[in-house]
Amino acid sequence: MSVIASTSRPVLNVLRLNRFPILFQLNLEEALLRGTKDNWFIVNDGAFQPAIVMGISGKPEELINVKEAANAGIQVIKRFTGGGTVVVDSNTLFTSLIMQGSDVPHVPCFPQQIMKFTEYVYGGIFDEYGEFHLRENDYVFGERKFGGNAQAITGQRWLHHTSLLWDFDQKNMDLLKHPKKKPKYREERPHNDFVTRLCDHVPSRTRLLDELLDGVPYLVEQLVAQKMGGKEEEEESRAKELAAREGGVEQAIGDFEGRGFEIREASLAEAAMALQKRSSSGNKEVDLTAHLDAAELQAL
């Protein structure tokens, strides 16, 4: 990835992580969102260990088979963003966009507009591999989910992070309950009929990681740098397709006339400086034993 030399444009920092612990990643993302005005794109190639990650309002007894999860000794985390519950492990790929609203002025700081913006961005990566759509808050091929999304918005800053299922371990998936609140498009499908593995669609994991690291920053930069419906017929066609399917995407994306980004590779040490400015975190580990009765505790 080349670094553009201009210093007059906003910077999009690109950080690549490998098997970074998911709790540490969440703490880092929150610190970058709340404690800086910088723009970041983060890719983490797999979690260090399996974990169940709930949204900020998640309740273990409603979302997790608590006894089985406690017996498995799996880490359970409540994150600072909303969204659903996911099981992650070394075969989960994580991406995060953390943006200063003034640097993407044509993307209003509202959930659906941000979601539609990211649909365009990630469509540039995944259209090649299947019938890519944003369905409610999920990325899907056809009717099967491969990516879950969650967001946080604070003032004029926003974060959009995604967990991508390269592959998954069924026994870990079985630790989750069938949620009461679920996407309408899921209907009553069991988990195996609802999700799909990216490894069944993409030739190699390395290829996908390279495409994410190079393609997402480029697509963000292009969307901000040039006018939609002008120079690039392919981008115009994509925007119109999304507008017809979902409605309002052109307003969400805007005309993107004006500034682009300087794209630069960043180090973990640079990103971690934000942690020094944050004394508290909205992420925490959940003690499952607090959700077991005496007999279940004895059986552990």
Secondary structure blueprint with pairings:
Blueprint lengths: L10 E8 L3 H14 L3 E7 L5 E4 L5 H4 L2 H7 L2 E4 L7 E3 L3 E9 L10 H16 L5 E4 L2 E4 L2 E11 L2 E9 L4 H4 L17 H4 L10 H21 L7 H14 L2 H5 L8 E4 L2 H5 L11 E2 L8 H6 L1
Parallel strand pairs: 1-2, 1-11, 3-4
Antiparallel strand pairs: 2-6, 3-5, 4-12, 6-10, 7-8, 8-9, 9-10
- Tertiary shape: globular
Rg? 19 Å
* Mean pLDDT across all amino acids: 87
**Total count of helical runs of at least 4 residues:** 11
- Strand content of the residues, in percent? 15-25%
Can you describe this structure?
InterPro entries: aa-tRNA-synth_II/BPL/LPL, BPL_LPL_catalytic, Lipoate-ligase_2_inactive. This is BPL/LPL catalytic domain-containing protein. The protein is α+β, with helices and mostly antiparallel strands. It has an 8-stranded mixed β-sheet, with helices on both faces. About 40% of the residues are buried. The chain is globular. The chain has a single domain (about 10-300), classed as 2-Layer Sandwich (BirA Bifunctional Protein, domain 2), CATH 3.30.930.10. The model is unreliable at about 1-5, about 225-235 and about 245-260 (pLDDT under 50). The chain has helices at about 20-35, 60-65, 65-70, 110-125, 170-175, 190-195, 205-225, 235-245, 250-255, 270, 295-300, and strands at about 10-20, 40-45, 50-55, 75-80, 85-90, 90-100, 130-135, 140, 145-155, 155-165, 260-265, 285.
